[in-house]
Request: fold
Amino acid sequence: MNFTAQQIADILEGEVVGNPNEEVSKLSKIEEGEKGSLTFLSNPKYQPFLYTTNASIAIVNKSFLLEKEISTTLIKVEDAYKAFSKLLEFYNEVKNNKMGREMPHFISDSAKIGDNEYLGAFAYIGENVIIGNNVKIYPNCYIGDNTTIGDNCIIFSGVKIYSETKIGNHCKIHSGCIIGSDGFGFAPNEKGEYKAIPQIGNVIIEDYVDIGSASTIDRATLGSTIIRKGVKLDNQIQIAHNVEVGKNTVIAAQSGVAGSTKIGENCMIGGQVGLAGHLIIGNNVKIQGQSGITKSLKDGEKVQGTPAINYSDYNKSYVYFRNLPKIMASIDKMKKDINTQKV
Reply:
């Protein structure tokens, strides 16, 4: 799809400097720009590339002043970085604006689907499923019985949503996610054999939640595993049974949360973090990457390490650890000096 410089300027409320009819059909980095592409300049470090790029259109700040002539058409805006982000959102909306139902697919007679839906090929919609308006379900998705999905959600290819799951509005679930599979619940019998405990709860995902590819969220043993409003989960994250993740918390890739742990609001959790089960993590907690959390944390704590300790204490301790050979050599020298003085 082609857009002119003037059309883009109208979307961004910007001003065209150059040819308003210049057309682009793709996006590019400024140093790799080619004819027919759109780029942007916000970091002064990349300013020299503006004079060598082959991009047809570049978005720049209004304060930017040219040092020499260029062939690229400019669109001047208040903030080039924010404007380009806005344009990416618009581009995504246009690109993903699919409608209708591809064949083959299966929809149970008892399912209810709202207006303006997209249903990709080989999608399966189970019994008593309720799907809102403007929902896009891409190919090879499975939506289990009695699941509800709110308005304006996007379910990408290969997502499996087990029965009884409840998903709010404006959610995005990326490819390969599994929502509502059994929690890891087993009990040994008298022979020492592990017997599965039935997991009869469900998963609740509130509004504006994003879940990255290949993440798994287990159903509760009883009650619900809950992902609160505005939570953002990266790729390959494991959320165990009966976990609750508080509003606007973000968790980076390859992290895992064990059963029944409660995470507060506005927390930031780095990649490859492991949280033990049955913990209470307060609000506004920050956990650095690769930390192991074995105890509950209070509001506002910042921790790092395995087992995790106060972030500031960890950094101080790490300095000592790196210098441990020198410290030991210094101690050995002091011992020798003391022994010499005694003689």
